[in-house]
Amino acid sequence: MSKLPKENQFLDLSDYGRPAAKWIASSLQDTKFTAIHLTVAFIFSGLIAIGCLLNAYYWAAAFFLVLKSILDAADGELARVKNQPSYVGRYLDSVSDIILNFLLLLSIQYISTASLLQMILAFVGLQLQGTLYNYYYVILRNKHNGDTTSRVFEKRAPKALKGEHQKNVNLLFKLYQLFYSLFDRSIYQLDKTACKDQFIPKWLMTAVSTFGLGFQLLLMGIMLSFDLADYIIPFFIYYSAFILIFIGIRKTLN
């Protein structure tokens, strides 16, 4: 199942792992495995990638980064095929992603010539890129009656869904707010009218999908495989300039 109706789907460059994710979800559909189990699996995959990175096993690091992306997609797929949407899963996924992103960039800074300040700038850029992608994607999903577990505005903890405990939703929501609220507010300030205009052409969404975490991790894996670790952090700093370019294009089209 897709997050968008078929007629509204676009070529998502960050979603290259979707076929494998669907296969995993289909294989686990009639088992006791849940989306949360797959979220935990992608956390371990991310940590293994970091361990490989720190020990100079760059090809292995690249493999586990791609596997992490596939499992990251598979948890949502399994939730959909089992018809078990979950706010716990949604927030656990996001909180895990940002922590792993920070640890990953910190590890890359450790093995490269980048400074700690450059690493922090790259991390902020990486998160702002992903936030713009998610912002536009959630707008489309709400407009076209797609998956609605994610919301454009995350102001208060949602009511727990069936099978969830409200205290768990509340805790993870607070962590989500702690880690993401500044990035969410920043992107909203840069493009307040996106929610009202709601026109984001498919080709622009394909371009913005290069900001998706899956594509970001793929780029890191490729650079690591070709022994280009020194270029990873500078790349994500400079690529952040496209945030303003993509927003400018979207505004021009409306």
UniProtKB/TrEMBL annotation:
InterPro entries assigned to the protein according to its UniProt record, in alphabetical order: CDP-OH_P_trans (IPR000462), CDP-OH_PTrfase_TM_dom (IPR043130), CDP_ALCOHOL_P_TRANSF_CS (IPR048254)
Alphabetized GO MF terms: phosphotransferase activity, for other substituted phosphate groups
Keyword tags: Membrane, Transferase, Transmembrane, Transmembrane helix
Coiled coil (UniProt feature): none
One Gene Ontology cellular component: membrane
GO BP of this protein: phospholipid biosynthetic process
Transmembrane segments: 35-59, 203-225, 231-249
Family listed: Belongs to the CDP-alcohol phosphatidyltransferase class-I family.
Name recorded for this polypeptide: CDP-alcohol phosphatidyltransferase
